[in-house]
Amino acid sequence: MPAYKDNKTGKWFCKFYYTDWQGNNRQKWKRGFATKKEALAYERDFLEKQSANPDMTFQNLYELYMEDMTARLKKSTILTKRHICETHILPFFGKKPINEIKASDVRRWQNQLMNSPKGYSKTYLKTINNQLTCMINYAKRFYDLNTNPCGQAGSIGQAKAEEMDYWTYDEYIAFREGIKDKPLSYICFQVLYWTGMREGELLALTAADIDLGTKQIDINKTYQRLHGEDIITTPKTRKSKRKVPIPDFLCQELQEYMDSRYMLAPNERLFPITKSFLSHEMERGCKKTGVKRIRIHDIRHSHASLLINQGCDALILADRLGHEKVSTTLNTYSHLFPHKQQELVSNLEQLAATVGATPTPEPPMENPLLKTMGISYDGNMSSDSVTPDTAYANTGLPYGPIPKETASGKVIPMPKRKAI
After folding, report:
1. What do you get for the CA distance between the two ends of the chain, in Å?
2. Which DSSP string do the residues of 349-416 spell out, in sequence order?
């Protein structure tokens, strides 16, 4: 339908009819366009989204997708998706109809990302590619898109980094000395290292979450700061809600810290800081002590490494870290179990050393079990005594020679059979 110009304002507007999701005919007005082209483009985009055909542009698919996902995902997740799409995907695919996107287009886009001068990490490349795949699958499921160019093009990047950064126990102790001059920084890193909780889980803790009687920390929420606003939400997964036992020394340090807080309310945040504060303190402590710089999240890996070296198995570790599945723990920390392989080899060597050995334990002078059965042994049996192999082969009794005994009663010979 045509666009119209408002003679009073000099602006263009569009007026058209469409059918809503309930099948009702409705009229749509939109004013304030500087040019006729902009007014017609708005009408075209609006009708494409209403019809939801696979020939809609990727930009329109993105808007429909985000509108749908906003009601289903956390605000932080939505912001991450928006940033990835608007920075890396829409500039390339935004104006292209989704049913015209080919595998070759996806490959060119992937090559552009991999050759970017910004040098994106392999894990970030995987994240960006996954977001495009997610939106294409959404179009296939709900808007009758027949092809899957992402599946044909293949993926890029990798799901996890080749190497995991973490501190050894000695490295953490050295780092701790560098931030000990600030009690708040010290207790925050103490809790992170000795519990393995996530950064957001730490910053969401309240005094009511610390049970010094049972020596446990109740993790039931997470903290984020979005657009200058403090937001408390549910933890990452269902399993993230957990109670983490803590050692005595950490209980004492938490008690001293809470006593130092004036008029601390039970539901008040225990550590009223931000993630940027912790990053700054990490940088300060590493420069002061010479310990290698790692991410705040890598302290969680450091805790896992500490527990694995102490012999903790994957099931207990998964429960303590709040992983949804034990497979997540195994996939993340499988390379930290080398001592288990060596222990297995040692056990096999010990087993092989015993093959072919014939232990000949000396019988006791008086065996209580034999005595209860009416068999006595004085240690002076003759050389023609019955051997242990023939006498006790199937009895389960201790080996040892026994005296000959004459069977009582009449012996009845068995008849011989003739071979036919």
Report:
1. 109
2. HHHHHTTT----PPPPSS-HHHHHTT----S---TTSBPHHHHSTTT-PPP--B---PPPS---PPPP
306: its two tokens: 């500490």
Whole-Å CA distances, 269 to 117, 186, 201, 232, 251? 41, 17, 11, 10, 18
Which contacts qualify for 111-117: CB closer than 8 Å, 24 or more apart?
113/88, 113/156, 114/156
Q: Where is 332: in which H helix or E strand?
A: helix 326-333
Residue 269's DSSP bridge partners are 206
Nearest-angstrom CA–CA distance, 259 and 253: 10
Structure tokens at 186: 């010290």
Q: pLDDT tens digits, residue range 174-205?
A: 999 999 999 999 999 999 999 999 999 999 99
Residue found by looking up tokens 């700054």 in the block: 280
Buried b (16+ CB within 10 A) or exposed e, 364-376: eeebeebeeeeee
The tens digit of pLDDT for each residue in 297-345 reads 999 999 999 998 888 888 899 999 998 888 888 888 877 765 556 677 7
Please say whether the beta carbons of 150 and 133 come within 8 A. Answer: yes
Mean pLDDT estimate for the chain: 82
Tens of pLDDT, residue by residue over 22-33, are: 567 777 878 888
What are the backbone angles phi and psi of residue 276, rounded to the nearest 5°? -65, -35
- Angle at which helix 36-51 crosses helix 58-70, to 10 degrees, equals 60
Q: Per-residue pLDDT tens for 124-143? A: 999 999 999 999 999 888 88
